[in-house]
From TrEMBL:
Designated name of the protein: Fe-S cluster assembly protein SufD
Gene Ontology BP annotations: iron-sulfur cluster assembly
InterPro entries: Fe-S_cluster_assembly_SufBD, SUF_FeS_clus_asmbl_SufBD_core, SUF_FeS_clus_asmbl_SufBD_sf, SUF_FeS_clus_asmbl_SufD
Native organism: Corynebacterium liangguodongii
SUPFAM superfamilies in the record: Stabilizer of iron transporter SufD
PANTHER family per record: PROTEIN ABCI7, CHLOROPLASTIC (PTHR43575:SF1)
Boundaries of every SUF system FeS cluster assembly SufBD core domain copy: 130-363
Family the entry assigns: Belongs to the iron-sulfur cluster assembly SufBD family.
Length: 393
């Protein structure tokens, strides 16, 4: 009987490297294999719902609509997609991000000069190009040494979009960043963010996820010198038909840096809806390398499931290669709101529905109150209230 060769399709259920901080990276999409639904980095998202962004079967490519409003001292440039400066924060680590870099028709560079103290925020707005087209974007935000700035990145409209929004945080600079994915309900967006933090630099980075049909944000932080201080915070609220994923990495590779991660999410659904159930996924990786002495880090993810059928996955990971650290820890929860708090409020005459909404608002406000721009903070608080008004609680 003749021998028969057995063909196999391997599943990349492991990274193939020592740590996630050492993941393969490239600016060329052809260097990445097409991911499958069982691959570790893609096993939660439905590849069928991301409109071919992962395997190049996407709709024709259109120019991304990216606009920037900034104080006069900020330099804003539209550059060729192969401009070497766009590579300053490092190469993509997944195929969709590499596709975005390969296929973007132009790049945007926003430069905050050294020693600048901006009193008004920089606002970068990405507007979807609509149905039947796909857009890709590459944006670099760089802060000069000893500068201070607030940068708001807004997404609006509808369409299919993938991008790299990267950050180079200069020595002793302070950047307050808000990334607001307020897409229309039928938008699909996969966004990668590479963040490089310099000596004694401070970054406060908040992601707000309320819109879109499918959204996936993947910030990756790398410290390049001692003294860096990073806080990554996020809020998200998923309804029927929505999938929201936040997948992040903080790579401590130098001594005496600090990081804190806090993401909070809520989910609600409608049993009568024909849409897929609301679903969220949060994966938080913190790596402390052997040389990262004196690291201080903690990560938290809290999820509040408001109705039956909704599902939240929460996966914190902490890799520690040295015991000479100031502290490290993580926590994650998925559950309903606190019944004791509800009882306390009802005992004081507050109706159950209003008491429930007060608890949920307080749940989110711990993150939202950290946003330094009052108008943005108030808008997001109002958005949470709007979600609760529509909720069948």
């Amino acid at each position: 009987m003749a021998d028969t060769a057995l063909e196999t399709n391997p599943v990349t259920n492991a990274s193939g490297v020592n740590t996630k901080g050492d993941a393969f990276s490239s600016f060329n999409v052809d260097d990445f294999a097409v991911p499958g639904g069982r691959d570790e980095d893609w096993r939660f998202i439905s590849l069928r719902r991301i409109r071919g962004l992962h395997n190049a079967s996407f709709a024709p490519v259109a120019e991304a609509n990216i606009s920037v409003e900034a104080p006069a001292e900020v330099a804003v440039e539209t550059v060729a997609p192969d401009d070497a400066r766009l590579k300053a924060a490092g190469a993509p680590v997944d195929r969709v991000a590499a596709q975005a870099f390969t296929s973007a028709k132009s790049g945007t560079i926003v430069s905050i000069p050294a020693d600048a103290e901006l009193t008004e925020p920089v606002t970068i707005t990405v507007t979807g190009a609509g149905d039947e087209v796909t857009t890709f974007g590459t944006v670099l935000i760089e802060s000069g040494a000893n500068s201070s700035a607030t940068v708001v990145v807004r997404y609006a409209g509808t369409g299919t979009h993938a991008d790299n929004v990267n950050w180079v945080i200069g020595d002793n600079s302070r950047v307050y960043a808000v990334v607001d994915t307020q897409w229309d309900d039928d938008a699909v967006h996969l966004g990668a963010q590479s963040i490089v933090v310099g000596r004694d630099a401070t970054l406060r980075h908040t992601v707000a996820g309320f819109g879109g049909e499918v959204t996936r944000m993947t910030p990756r932080v790398k410290f390049t010198a001692p003294g860096g201080d990073v806080e990554l915070t996020g809020v998200y609220f998923a309804d029927d038909g929505q999938y929201i994923e936040n997948r992040l990495l903080v790579d401590h590779s130098v001594p005496n840096c600090r990081s804190n991660v806090m993401y909070k999410g809520a989910l609600q659904g409608d049993k009568a809806s024909a849409k897929p159930d609301a679903r969220t996924c949060w994966v938080g990786d913190v790596l402390i390398r052997a040389e990262a002495l004196g690291t201080d880090t903690y990560e938290t993810n809290r999820n509040m499931v408001l109705t039956d059928g909704a599902r939240a996955d929460a996966i914190p990971n902490l890799e520690i290669e040295t015991g000479e650290i100031a502290g490290a820890g993580h926590a994650a929860t998925v559950g309903r709101f606190d019944d004791e708090q509800l009882f306390y409020l009802r005992a004081r005459g507050i109706p159950e529905k209003e008491a429930t909404r007060l608890i949920i608002r307080g749940f989110f406000n711990e993150v939202l109150n950290k946003i330094p721009v009052e108008s943005v903070r108030d808008e997001l608080i109002a958005r949470v209230s709007g979600e609760l008004e529509q909720a069948n609680l």
